[in-house]
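Filed under: proteins

Residues; backbone shape codes:
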Amino acid sequence: MKAWIQAFRLRTLPLAISSILLANLMAYKVLQGFFSFEIFWLTILTTVLLQILSNLANDYGDAVNGADHEGRKGPQRAVQSGEISKESMKRAIYIFSALSFVSGIGLLYQSISTLDEFLYFIGLGVLAIIAAITYTAGKKPYGYAGLGDLSVLIFFGWVGVLGSYYLQVGELDITLLFPATACGLLAVAVLNVNNIRDIESDIEAGKKSIPVRLGRKWAVMYHWLLLFSAIICGLCYVYFNYESPLQWLFVIIFPLLRKNGWAVTRLKEPSELDPYLKQMAITSLLFSILFGVTQLLPLYFQF
């Protein structure tokens, strides 16, 4: 059982739900007393199941494709270490695919009123399941082609925020693209720290992540770009939806982003980056909560 808990990689779940928390905080501002906690918890459940599915598929795919080996930095993986067989992991992937689909159907039943919307979100859910599995598994895993960053931006940012908001409110605010993009960029920054740490083992495995393609120097510059762009996106949203100076308070997250950027810049030993991988994930979650809360403040405090 311990091996399965490790394979689930529960530490990744806070990052996975960051976009859901942000979206629902923004939805609460619009709906207030009409906010649906049933939809909120079903969205959380579906997201958690998809993230665990992605983690299991990643464990399996990296073991099969050679990215996980004895010289790899970071936590031990279950299939590569032999604690879980490939066959058992494949069965778990099928099970969590089914659970994710069933949970998604329940979410749509609770939140969607028209057939067109239902079919659209079913398609989106199927794409999310496929993306979770084929990141490192399958014949042509897109994570090995350097497309993981784009996938994270789409699903941890745009789909996570805009989709969750729509399920609550039933309509979209185009300016939500700014915080959705910010949320996605910070999730990409988490992946980038991971990929900078694993750059040597990824080269050996033929995994062409962004840091492998750019080299470490430019991967660090790319990291700073992600961090600054996220803050700028947040500022743009407040500019277009300004109600109170309190909305700008989310910028107090900047020192944590700067700390992570300097760590990635200075630390050369892969193992030294491990604490900052966790720190970046927590900072991303804090950004989502802080941004959402600061946009709610004008409802309760007037200046």
